[in-house]
Known about the structure:
By secondary structure, the chain is of the alpha+beta class.
Amino acid sequence: MNPAELLLRYLKAYEAKDLRTIETLLADAVRLQDWNLTAVGKSAVLAETRKNFDDAKQLDIEIVRVYGAGRHAAAELRIVVNETIELNVVDVISLDEQGKVDTIRAYKG
Length: 109
């Protein structure tokens, strides 16, 4: 699976709050960084993701554009949380040699 396809799969799983699928996509040493936090390691990243899922009753993710190059992909997103909070975000992922997500960076704009 190329990075852009994997990113789309990750985003669909995120919108569906499908932690099991997200877990299968992550490398053991994955690193997550966004505008609020940094988490290192699969268990820490999954814990932060679970917390986000618990805090959001509803998530709608509109994928505006997707870019891919080499082992990296990025997506411009419009995210609506609980029908009231609108975020414009760029997610960037990088894959390791096994094709697992080893870096997730999210930028709010």
